[in-house]
UniProtKB/TrEMBL annotation:
<dbReference type="GO" id="GO:0008173">
    <property type="term" value="F:RNA methyltransferase activity"/>
</dbReference>
<keyword id="KW-0489">Methyltransferase</keyword>
<keyword id="KW-0949">S-adenosyl-L-methionine</keyword>
<keyword id="KW-0808">Transferase</keyword>
<dbReference type="GO" id="GO:0005829">
    <property type="term" value="C:cytosol"/>
</dbReference>
<dbReference type="GO" id="GO:0003723">
    <property type="term" value="F:RNA binding"/>
</dbReference>
<dbReference type="InterPro" id="IPR029028">
    <property type="entry name" value="Alpha/beta_knot_MTases"/>
</dbReference>
<protein>
    <submittedName>
        <fullName>RNA methyltransferase</fullName>
    </submittedName>
</protein>
<dbReference type="InterPro" id="IPR029026">
    <property type="entry name" value="tRNA_m1G_MTases_N"/>
</dbReference>
<comment type="similarity">
    <text>Belongs to the class IV-like SAM-binding methyltransferase superfamily. RNA methyltransferase TrmH family.</text>
</comment>
<dbReference type="InterPro" id="IPR001537">
    <property type="entry name" value="SpoU_MeTrfase"/>
</dbReference>
<dbReference type="Pfam" id="PF00588">
    <property type="entry name" value="SpoU_methylase"/>
</dbReference>
<dbReference type="GO" id="GO:0002128">
    <property type="term" value="P:tRNA nucleoside ribose methylation"/>
</dbReference>
<dbReference type="InterPro" id="IPR004384">
    <property type="entry name" value="RNA_MeTrfase_TrmJ/LasT"/>
</dbReference>
<feature type="domain" description="tRNA/rRNA methyltransferase SpoU type">
    <location>
        <begin position="11"/>
        <end position="161"/>
    </location>
</feature>
């Protein structure tokens, strides 16, 4: 396996998959996380498979490049490091990794030019012990032990996700630059106005609790880390409520049927 191939991530090796749909969904999961090389060992329904193409959601480049092998030994012959996925302890005294730890090791191996592969077993029974014996280490997943079996494509997706993170993948977008908080002057002016109107409405009852209630109210707004726009919006909302209560001109006019006119 070439260094350029290793840089694309681990080879995904499906051992005797039974359903074309699962192969297609596995290809889709690979494409989601930048994995390019699929190898298939003795697919039950032959290859190529129209159902795999239909289920791939456009990951045809993965399927078109997929290679078919007659045995696991042939499929891993050119690889340097092989992981086997399994939900059961096999008593083979191999190192056991979660997908995150295995993919962290894969990044290091790939950087050194080594070819890494991950074996995935049949949908119903997983890998047999002989296939697991060919691997250097085991990948397993923290799942509910009462329902530990994963769909083939789900298992591929979990490995691909951890590979993408370990190799430097990042979120496609973020909130962006944090806005500048409002000045203390703007915040305190808002507090003064709000507390004055709440006094007029009789909110601070009983009077001896006013100072505690004011502190609690101010801390609610402080936790929001308000911007100047936030302060203006909140102040405008309170003004509208006060004017509405006092019969101000900003009230919506009523139509003949009692509906608000726009």
């Amino acid at each position: 396996m070439s260094e350029s191939a290793a840089a694309r991530g681990p080879v995904i090796i499906l051992v005797e998959p039974q359903l074309g749909e699962n192969i297609g969904m596995a290809a889709r999961a690979m494409a989601n996380f930048g994995l390019a090389e699929m190898r298939i060992v003795n697919p039950r329904d032959g290859w190529p498979n129209e159902k795999a193409e239909a289920a791939s959601a456009g990951a045809l480049h993965v399927l078109s490049a997929a290679r078919v092998f007659g045995s696991v030994e042939e499929a891993i012959a050119d690889l340097n490091v092989v992981f086997a996925t399994t939900a059961r302890e096999r008593g083979q005294q191999k190192r056991v990794f979660g997908a995150d730890g295995a993919m962290a090791e894969t990044v290091a191996h790939a950087a050194a030019g080594a070819g890494v592969g991950v074996l995935f077993g049949r949908e119903r029974t997983g890998l047999d012990n002989d296939a697991v014996a060919l691997a250097d280490a085991i990948i397993t997943f923290p799942v509910n032990p009462a329902h530990a079996s994963l769909n083939l494509a789900q298992a591929v997706l979990l490995v691909g996700y951890e590979w993408f993170k370990a190799s430097g993948g990042s979120l496609p977008f973020s909130v962006g630059e944090r806005p500048v908080p409002a000045t203390r002057e703007a915040v305190l002016s808002f507090f003064d106005y709000l507390e004055g109107e709440l006094d007029a409405a009789g909110f601070f009852m009983p009077p001896e609790k006013r100072s505690i209630m004011v502190r609690n109210l101010r801390n609610i707004f402080h936790r929001l880390t308000m911007t100047d726009q936030d302060v203006r919006t909140l102040r405008g909302a309170v003004v509208a409520l006060v004017q509405g209560r006092r019969g101000g001109r900003n009230l919506p006019r009523k139509g003949r049927a009692g509906e608000e006119e726009k």
